[in-house]
Amino acid sequence: MGLVTGDLDQPVRRILLALDPTLAVIDEAREWGADVLVTHHPLLLRGVHSVATTSAKGSSVTALVRAGVALWVGHTNADVAEPGVSTVLANALGLTDQRPLSGENAGRVGDLAAPVSLAEFADAVAAALPATAGGIRVSGDPEGTVRTVAVMGGTGDDRFDDVRASGADVYVTADLRHHPVLEAREEARGGRPYLIDAGHWATESLWLESCRERLLATLGELAAATRVEARVSTQRTEPWTFVVGANAAQPDRAVPPTGGVS
């Protein structure tokens, strides 16, 4: 999406990176003296008719402009970049022989070093990603074998056809909705591909450090000469804070999706 606010001629020495341009993130940028805030998610994802401070979006725009903090957004750019959001996620899960999940270069497919059970893989996903209030949700036989893995950082329940075509044993993504998941599991007859919903923030936030490193590497000697600094925001923009009433049953006692798992 590119530059959202800011003067193209303003000097840049401090760059803050965050997943979302929330008010708390903008406050951090102002307090640190950042010249540019780089985020993955847009501030203005949908059209607005006012940026008055009576809304959170208006307060955000006003705060950025008043503080002289430019906002640059790399949303779908980062999704399809190589390496991008899904590449970093695939690397975190230890996938080798990586290839695009779709022709648009969105998502990745790769292989584990050795086959593991779905339950073991789910544990590995939880260990590799930042902890969240909701944890991760898994659909499939906990004893099912997993070797080939498809991943899509962020929302991914519109890619089930690509996942099936890839031959993946399991698909790791986020924001999986009831009806698309139920249909996908029906199509799989309880078998592969299994599904793991690891959360939007968790699957995408890993990209920030990679982006920071590549940004400084690209600037190279110029960054060193001008003392350009870049750091990842300390703010967690995961919106969920706690859960109650989660099913505490062990995986082997859970009721499988329609179609059954032996």
TrEMBL record:
Superkingdom is Bacteria
Q: Which InterPro entries does its entry note?
A: DUF34/NIF3, DUF34/NIF3_sf
Transmembrane helix as a keyword? no
Subunit note = Homohexamer.
Say which family it is in: Belongs to the GTP cyclohydrolase I type 2/NIF3 family.
Q: Which NCBIfam families match?
A: YbgI_SA1388
Q: Which PANTHER family match?
A: GTP CYCLOHYDROLASE 1 TYPE 2 HOMOLOG, NGG1 INTERACTING FACTOR 3
The protein here is known as: GTP cyclohydrolase 1 type 2 homolog
Q: Which Pfam families match?
A: DUF34_NIF3 (PF01784)
The alphabetized UniProt keywords are: Metal-binding
